[in-house]
Write a structure and sequence with these properties.
13 strands, elongated, five-stranded mixed sheet, six-stranded mixed sheet, Purple Acid Phosphatase, chain A, domain 2, 376 residues, alpha/beta, 19% strand
Length: 376
């Protein structure tokens, strides 16, 4: 810190200087110490050992500027934090409001009748239903997709499942809703390609999936529904602004519970220990279901084993829009495609495949066979 003699009209007292010194250094210098140090400092300045203060602005002006900049920075940080808190509060309010509306306004399906499906079958089915992208409209040289075609493909899927169940005398059905049930609005191209807003997509797919499970009910002794959220259903476009659990996919099972409340053989689970992983057992085989956006298929078995402390027999994933099968340390990793089929993104990257899903036949020893279901 540099001091210079005051101007004649300057009324600064040594006590002011001492107070300033102690405030800046954190020391407790006395008035005499500071006053007697001034001649020595003056000699250093005259000899050129210490540079004179900058005439363009005083030391105090510089400090005031730094303090003002810090005050503005802290104010901006506080405003940003408050904005994020408001967004999160609005998200919580929206989720709670939608759940309340669902609970109060959904009319449950009627007409359930106990079926006579045999309970002595030696296998069950796992039906993967993932990447429906409801609301997406596709019209290219190899694929067309809209809400009517989505319903048609779901009906086609039900027909294939009924054939498989009869062929293998399957007893129960485990449905895994693998995420990305709606197209969402996380990117501008998705908003352009969608003909429904996000809430319309959510309502449409909730009804469609409920109808799908309703049709499965008479085919099996019991139907169990598990779900994970995808990346397309987040509330905010910027994924950094989304808190865990703020995915619209999570509302679909909630809707289904209300819609299928009278169907005694349908059991819907809407809570996971970790929201991005569904865990359940099929005839003694431990199954992990993930969407796939947080995992690679080469390492998913190892990571989930270390994460939960139990090695899976079967891992099921979607997200990559193609059916696939591989073995990782004796665990079977199954990938299901998408119901929507190749969109504009696929066209731009020269990618093309059929809309497809996977059905697994599982017995006490594991996967008995896989069905690679393709849709027209």
């Amino acid at each position: 810190m540099l001091l210079r003699r005051s101007d004649p009209d300057d009324e600064t007292e040594w006590a002011d200087v001492v107070a300033f010194m102690n405030e800046q250094t954190g020391e407790n210098y006395s008035r005499d110490f500071v006053r007697k140090s001034w001649p020595l400092l003056s000699m250093y300045i005259q000899e050129g050992w210490v540079g004179p203060p900058d005439d363009s602005g005083s030391y105090f002006e510089s400090k005031r500027l730094e303090a003002e900049k810090e005050r503005i920075r802290l104010r901006d940080e506080r405003n940003e934090l408050n904005r994020l808190k408001r967004d999160l509060a609005r998200a919580d309010t929206m989720m709670d409001l939608w759940k309340q509306i669902i609970s109060e306004s959904v009319e449950p399906f009627h007409g359930y009748q106990a079926n006579s499906v045999c309970s002595d079958g030696d296998c069950d089915l796992i039906v993967h239903l993932t990447d429906l992208h409801a609301g997406l409209v596709i019209d290219n040289f190899c694929n067309r997709y809209n809400e009517e075609i989505m319903i048609h493909r779901l009906q086609e899927y039900l027909g294939r499942i009924e054939e498989i169940a009869a062929r293998h005398r399957a007893n129960n059905c485990y449905v895994l809703l693998g995420g990305d049930l709606i197209s969402g609005a996380i990117h501008t191209p998705l908003r352009i390609e969608s003909n429904m807003n996000t809430l319309e997509q959510l309502k449409f797919v909730s009804i469609a999936v409920s109808e799908f499970v309703k049709e499965l009910s008479p085919m099996f002794a019991d139907v169990y529904v598990y779900s994970v959220a995808g990346n397309h259903s987040r509330l905010f476009q910027n994924k950094k602004e989304n808190a865990k659990g703020e995915n619209l996919d999570t509302l679909v099972p909630f809707y289904m519970q209300a819609k299928l409340s009278e169907y005694e053989n349908v059991h819907i689970y809407d809570h996971n220990d970790e929201e991005s992983v569904a865990r359940f057992s099929v005839r003694g085989n431990l199954v992990y279901g993930v969407h796939g956006d947080k995992d690679t298929m080469e390492s998913v078995v190892q990571k989930l084993t270390m994460f939960f402390g139990a090695k899976p027999d079967i891992v099921m994933a979607g997200h990559r829009h193609t059916n696939g099968f591989r073995t990782v340390y004796d665990s079977k990793v199954i990938e299901s495609g998408c119901l929507s089929g190749p969109d504009n993104f696929c066209m731009d990257h020269r990618l093309q495949n059929k809309p497809e899903q996977m059905v697994l036949v599982v017995n006490d020893t594991g996967i008995e066979c896989l069905y690679d279901i393709k849709f027209s």
